């Protein structure tokens, strides 16, 4: 996520094989927590670094076709990462398109219904957090 003047934006990127819009994701890694893997994949796939939450934002499933042609259902744990820096060079630069967009737009671009719901839930959560930080307005008399 990136807080842009005028609103919250999330980063989508394209899949290397199908070109559909996705979020960074990867396989579990020994010795690393799931949220650490999420942060690492975000850097490798999109060049972003920042503060990752250690609580799951949501989960979704999607079918993945492996190199041997076998199709497996993958379950993805989604973690929010507030972006602090964007690298000019990173592992998968040039292999994917990236775009910062609103949560509503992200929900229309992804194919997985559960991921759509995660974007909309995230938008509501961030709006609630922002409202909680705003000073209370005193009505004018």
From TrEMBL:
Cellular component GO terms, alphabetical:
cytoplasm
| Pfam families from the UniProt entry | NUDIX (PF00293)
Q: Which SUPFAM superfamilies match?
A: Nudix
What keywords appear on the UniProt entry?
A: Hydrolase, Magnesium, Metal-binding
The cofactor required is: Mg(2+)
Please report the stretch or stretches of sequence annotated as the Nudix hydrolase domain: 1-123
State the Gene Ontology terms under molecular function: metal ion binding; pyrophosphatase activity
What name has this protein been given in UniProt? Answer: Putative NUDIX family protein
